[in-house]
Predict the 3D structure of the following.
Amino acid sequence: MGKRNGFLELTRQSAQTIDPLERIMNFQEFHIPLSKKEQVKQAARCMDCGIPFCQYGQEIKGMVSGCPLNNLIPEWNDCIYQGHYDEALKRLLKTNNFPEFTSRVCPAPCEKACTCSLHGEAVTIKDNEFAIIEDAFEHGLMESCIPEVRIDKKIAIVGSGPAGLAAADQLNQRGYDVDVYERDDRIGGLLMYGIPQMKIAKDIVERRVKKMELEGVTFYPNHGIENKQQAQTLIETYDAVILACGARSPRDIEVPGRMASNVIFAVDYLTQVTKSLLNSDFKDGLCVNAKGKNVLVIGGGDTGNDCVGTAIRQGCHQVIQLEMMKEPPLQRGDNNPWPEWPRVKKTDYGQEESLAVFKKDPRLYQTTVKEFIQDDQGQVIKAVLISLKETVKQGHLVMEPIAGSEEIIDVDLVFIAAGFIGCESSVAEAFDVSLTKRQNVATVDNTYQTNQKKVYVAGDMRRGQSLVVWAIREGREVAKQIDLALMGFTNL
């Protein structure tokens, strides 16, 4: 595969990004793709290793190693190197319904498991994937594929995020009639409102939705299924129902002053901003605005970083991001060998922009909020921060406050990005499905079947908060199981 000694002769060259001080002036995507000539060189670095860990896609010590979709990465790398983008597309689409999504928002576990990364820099797998799918759209290779034969069975999917869309795509291509119900005003779920515009432009999501509509999938925006009567109607009308509503119940914090109106869940903030941007280019004023404000973000993950990047684009005065855990090392430790997911410090786009604008990384490690101080109107104006230390209790690592380490900072706006604790209860109660201890929908014998005969579940709603690439995998797998149950066999 690829150039025989490409990994020895060529160095990694990733797609460039627009300078932080320039890109924060708008909400547009900011990556600059490589030229085709350079992309060929990067594909040539794929080393034809005996065991392609890049496509392994299994968990090691609780974290995924390699691509959960088992993408045929060495094969389409070779196709790029040979200049056969049409063949590369065929190999890519065999395992991934939406490469245009994953090539933008996936953290690339494939690259972390790339054999080249063992003693050097990984192949630019994510950039190569982006090159294949965007070349296909540009050159008309992504034509609508309408099933020639329809099966006389109907499937309802509740939720239009990556899991729901993947299941819809698979089942529609198999020949089922597929209806997708979405409570928001636009289709896309997490892809539309949970991830900011600068990470994935919404016309990219709409491009795919339009293609699926032309192929026969019917979408119903503004159609939430959230009570027992609506749920029962779906169960009686359809041969199978898939719940793919995500894990959107945010984890809260319990400190004095939490209930102030300027303390907001991150997912609500990001949703408001994207809606206002799409509806009116912010002219409607229907979103929280961080302009000129001291912003505090609680949570060091991707959602917290998205809040940092969004607040900076709105023109905040300063931004601080709290992370409870200690600062990760810059390189793998001896207890974190390849091909495990590397537990190393990652500086994402929002933090890069903070460095450019405010000349400092916004993150404070081993720090949390002890108390919010409010003014006479009940608005938070200051936050009391406190440092944390690692302690082992009953065999578990816990973070304990350090007495006397308190620090008071000015705060005008707080975003809670502390993760999620499971699915929202309304849909689960409407369909009367059982939940796990982690508040995800329980399945029978570790399948995708719930305790209700015709009701299935996939994506974050089943496995908890996870990656887009895992959601697509779940959507493909639940489609396969439904096909087997209804037809007695499956070719999905």
In short: The first helix runs from residue 6 to 9.
